[in-house]
Amino acid sequence: QVQLVDSGGGLVQAGGSLRLSCAASGRTFSSYAMGWFRQAPGKEREFVAGISLGGGIIYYVDSVKGRFTISRDNAKNTVYLQMNSLKPEDTAVYYCAAGIHLAAMRNHEYKSWGQGTQVTVSS
Predict the structure, then answer these.
(1) Phi and psi of 6, rounded to 5°?
(2) Across the chain, which distance is largest between two alpha carbons, in Å?
(3) Residue 29 vs residues 65, 74, 91: alpha-carbon distances, Å
(4) 93 with 80: CB under 8 angstroms?
């Protein structure tokens, strides 16, 4: 399985921005759809954003549309999540994930995931 290391979380004021990064090991990064899911205490796991192998298909959960942008750089084996206009309800541990297909990832079917990075948005 592809190995993923995610980073970039932190504490930010509401309305601020963060960029999460996910570095993948190996030489098969471009063979996976990639995305991010988040988990917050007392809440269900939520698949936030996903991007297809070549970047041509992008998915966002409704609550982050217009605020978050997912992108990938296959040459660098890296996927990003740019998060703007952050809200306290975005507070969660964010996990980078790799999957076979975006449709499967939306159903929480992942092949691999990172260790998680904490995002905390204050009021």
Answers:
(1) -105, 155
(2) 42
(3) 25, 7, 28
(4) no
